[in-house]
Automatic annotation (TrEMBL):
Subunit structure: Heterotrimer of A, B and C subunits.
UniProt cross-references to NCBIfam families, sorted A to Z: gatC (TIGR00135)
Chemical reaction(s) catalysed: L-glutamyl-tRNA(Gln) + L-glutamine + ATP + H2O = L-glutaminyl-tRNA(Gln) + L-glutamate + ADP + phosphate + H(+); L-aspartyl-tRNA(Asn) + L-glutamine + ATP + H2O = L-asparaginyl-tRNA(Asn) + L-glutamate + ADP + phosphate + 2 H(+)
Protein name (Swiss-Prot/TrEMBL): Aspartyl/glutamyl-tRNA(Asn/Gln) amidotransferase subunit C
UniProt cross-references to PANTHER family, sorted A to Z: GLUTAMYL-TRNA(GLN) AMIDOTRANSFERASE SUBUNIT C, MITOCHONDRIAL
InterPro entries, alphabetized: Asp/Glu-ADT_sf_sub_c, GatC
EC primary class: ligase
Gene Ontology molecular-function annotations: asparaginyl-tRNA synthase (glutamine-hydrolyzing) activity; ATP binding; glutaminyl-tRNA synthase (glutamine-hydrolyzing) activity; transferase activity
SUPFAM superfamilies named among the record's database cross-references: Glu-tRNAGln amidotransferase C subunit
Gene name in the database record: gatC
Family stated for the protein in its record: Belongs to the GatC family.
Listed EC numbers: 6.3.5.-
Function: Allows the formation of correctly charged Asn-tRNA(Asn) or Gln-tRNA(Gln) through the transamidation of misacylated Asp-tRNA(Asn) or Glu-tRNA(Gln) in organisms which lack either or both of asparaginyl-tRNA or glutaminyl-tRNA synthetases. The reaction takes place in the presence of glutamine and ATP through an activated phospho-Asp-tRNA(Asn) or phospho-Glu-tRNA(Gln).
């Protein structure tokens, strides 16, 4: 088992500004210890001749040709808008910006 202590978990929680109960600290100590142990196991078997992988099977993005099609008119797009100025959506100003 890893050498992670409850005091270390409590210290990390304090640094992260997370309030933990004693039961949560105990549970997280065990869980974090298990994670550290598993990472150590993987590090032991990882060798330079084995390439790093992010996924067990090769993936490839599937793209389609960009073909123009039928689109909405401005009137159709604005028909369901709660507020508009005739040609654009109107939204509430944010961050103290003036209209």
């Amino acid at each position: 088992m890893s050498e992670i202590t409850q005091e270390q978990v409590a210290h990390l929680a304090n640094l992260a500004r997370i309030a933990l109960t004693p039961q949560e600290i105990e549970s997280l100590t065990s869980e974090l210890g298990s994670i550290v142990d598993n990472v150590a196991k993987v590090s032991e078997v990882a060798t330079p001749d084995v390439p790093a992988t992010s996924h067990p099977i090769p993936l490839q993005n599937v793209y389609r040709d960009d073909e123009p099609g039928v689109t909405l008119t401005s009137e159709q797009a604005l028909a369901g808008a709660p507020d508009h100025d005739g040609s654009r959506f109107r939204v509430t100003a944010i961050l103290g910006e003036e209209q």
